[in-house]
C-alpha cells in the first residue's frame, strides 16, 4: 500500500459521497463535513515524515519551541542542525569544499550556489522580465529594480538603498572610512569604484568610447558630457538668466558673472 501511496493513488473512499483521498487523516477530516463534528485542533498540516525525530523537529515550526541553545551567545534554535550551522559563525569552521577550486564554505547551500560560478547554471528566473539568474539572493536584488523597494536605511541620514553593499559604501560618507588604497600612490578611497577610476590616471586606460567619433575617455561622466557636443543638449540652466549649458563646470563658472565671485588670486608679487 505504501508503494501505491507514493504513486498518488487515492485508496481512501468516503462512504457518504464516494470522494477518494490519498491519506486516511484527510478522509477523516472530510467526513466531518458530513457529520458536522468539529475535530480537536491537533493537526496543523498534512506533512508526513519517515522518522519520529523529524516529525518532532517539524512540530516546533508550529509551536515556536526552541530547546537548543548556543553556548556562546545564548541564541536559541528549534533544530540541532540549525544550531550546528550557527556554531560555525563562532568557530569559523568550513567543512564543505568545492571540488573545482577547493574554496571552503560553512553551509552546503552556499557551496551549491558557489558551484554555479563554475557550471554557469542559472536556475532562477525573474517573473517580470524573464531574466535568468544564478542565485536566489541575486534574484531578490534584481526584483527590486522592478518594485523600487529600498529596504536598507542609513541610520544617520535615513537615505534608503536597494542593496546592503550600497548602504555600506554610503555609510563611509559619514564615517570618512577609506579602506581602498591605491597601490601606486597610496591614496585612499571610500569606494572600490572610485579607486578603479583613480587607477586609470596611472595606467592611462580609457575604456569608454564615443559612438559618434570614437574618442575615448577614462570615465563615463566625462563621456556623457562630451556626447553633448554632438547632440547640442544643454541640460544645466542658470537660475538667474536662464542661459543653458552642456556641463555643470561651465554653469558654475558662468554663475560667478552674477555673483561677482573671483576665487582665483594671482600670487606673483610685482616689483615697484
Automatic annotation (TrEMBL):
<dbReference type="InterPro" id="IPR022755">
    <property type="entry name" value="Znf_C2H2_jaz"/>
</dbReference>
<feature type="domain" description="C2H2-type">
    <location>
        <begin position="180"/>
        <end position="207"/>
    </location>
</feature>
<dbReference type="GO" id="GO:0005634">
    <property type="term" value="C:nucleus"/>
</dbReference>
<keyword id="KW-0862">Zinc</keyword>
<comment type="similarity">
    <text>Belongs to the snail C2H2-type zinc-finger protein family.</text>
</comment>
<feature type="domain" description="C2H2-type">
    <location>
        <begin position="68"/>
        <end position="95"/>
    </location>
</feature>
<dbReference type="Pfam" id="PF13894">
    <property type="entry name" value="zf-C2H2_4"/>
</dbReference>
<feature type="domain" description="C2H2-type">
    <location>
        <begin position="96"/>
        <end position="123"/>
    </location>
</feature>
<feature type="domain" description="C2H2-type">
    <location>
        <begin position="40"/>
        <end position="67"/>
    </location>
</feature>
<dbReference type="GO" id="GO:0000981">
    <property type="term" value="F:DNA-binding transcription factor activity, RNA polymerase II-specific"/>
</dbReference>
<dbReference type="InterPro" id="IPR036236">
    <property type="entry name" value="Znf_C2H2_sf"/>
</dbReference>
<keyword id="KW-0863">Zinc-finger</keyword>
<keyword id="KW-0479">Metal-binding</keyword>
<feature type="domain" description="C2H2-type">
    <location>
        <begin position="12"/>
        <end position="39"/>
    </location>
</feature>
<keyword id="KW-0539">Nucleus</keyword>
<feature type="domain" description="C2H2-type">
    <location>
        <begin position="236"/>
        <end position="263"/>
    </location>
</feature>
<feature type="domain" description="C2H2-type">
    <location>
        <begin position="152"/>
        <end position="179"/>
    </location>
</feature>
<dbReference type="InterPro" id="IPR050527">
    <property type="entry name" value="Snail/Krueppel_Znf"/>
</dbReference>
<dbReference type="GO" id="GO:0008270">
    <property type="term" value="F:zinc ion binding"/>
</dbReference>
<dbReference type="Pfam" id="PF12171">
    <property type="entry name" value="zf-C2H2_jaz"/>
</dbReference>
<feature type="domain" description="C2H2-type">
    <location>
        <begin position="124"/>
        <end position="151"/>
    </location>
</feature>
<dbReference type="InterPro" id="IPR013087">
    <property type="entry name" value="Znf_C2H2_type"/>
</dbReference>
<dbReference type="Pfam" id="PF00096">
    <property type="entry name" value="zf-C2H2"/>
</dbReference>
<keyword id="KW-0677">Repeat</keyword>
<dbReference type="GO" id="GO:0000978">
    <property type="term" value="F:RNA polymerase II cis-regulatory region sequence-specific DNA binding"/>
</dbReference>
<protein>
    <submittedName>
        <fullName>Gastrula zinc finger protein XlCGF57.1</fullName>
    </submittedName>
</protein>
<feature type="domain" description="C2H2-type">
    <location>
        <begin position="208"/>
        <end position="235"/>
    </location>
</feature>
<dbReference type="Pfam" id="PF13912">
    <property type="entry name" value="zf-C2H2_6"/>
</dbReference>
Amino acid at each position: 500500500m505504501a508503494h501505491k501511496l507514493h504513486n498518488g493513488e487515492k485508496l481512501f473512499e468516503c462512504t457518504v459521497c464516494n470522494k477518494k483521498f490519498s491519506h486516511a487523516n484527510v478522509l477523516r477530516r472530510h467526513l466531518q463535513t458530513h457529520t458536522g463534528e468539529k475535530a480537536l485542533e491537533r493537526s496543523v498540516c498534512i506533512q508526513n515524515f519517515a522518522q519520529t525525530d523529524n516529525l518532532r523537529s517539524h512540530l516546533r515550526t508550529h509551536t515556536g519551541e526552541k530547546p537548543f541553545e548556543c553556548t556562546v551567545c545564548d541564541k536559541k534554535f528549534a533544530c540541532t542542525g540549525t544550531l550546528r550551522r550557527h556554531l560555525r559563525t563562532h568557530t569559523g569552521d568550513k567543512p564543505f569544499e568545492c571540488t573545482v577550486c577547493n574554496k571552503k564554505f560553512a553551509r552546503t547551500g552556499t557551496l551549491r550556489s558557489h558551484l554555479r560560478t563554475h557550471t554557469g547554471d542559472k536556475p532562477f528566473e525573474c517573473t517580470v522580465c524573464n531574466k535568468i539568474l544564478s542565485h536566489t539572493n541575486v534574484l531578490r536584488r534584481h526584483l527590486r529594480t522592478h518594485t523600487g523597494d529600498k529596504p536598507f536605511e542609513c541610520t544617520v541620514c535615513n537615505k534608503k538603498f536597494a542593496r546592503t553593499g550600497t548602504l555600506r559604501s554610503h555609510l563611509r560618507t559619514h564615517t570618512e572610512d577609506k579602506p581602498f588604497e591605491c597601490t601606486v600612490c597610496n591614496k585612499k578611497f571610500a569606494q572600490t569604484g572610485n579607486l578603479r577610476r583613480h587607477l586609470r590616471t596611472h595606467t592611462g586606460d580609457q575604456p569608454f568610447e564615443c559612438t559618434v567619433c570614437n574618442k575615448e575617455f577614462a570615465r563615463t561622466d566625462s563621456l556623457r558630457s562630451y556626447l553633448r557636443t554632438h547632440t547640442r543638449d544643454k541640460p544645466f540652466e542658470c537660475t538667474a538668466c536662464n542661459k543653458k549649458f552642456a556641463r555643470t563646470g561651465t554653469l558654475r563658472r558662468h554663475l560667478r558673472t552674477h555673483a561677482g565671485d573671483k576665487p582665483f588670486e594671482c600670487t606673483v608679487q610685482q616689483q615697484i
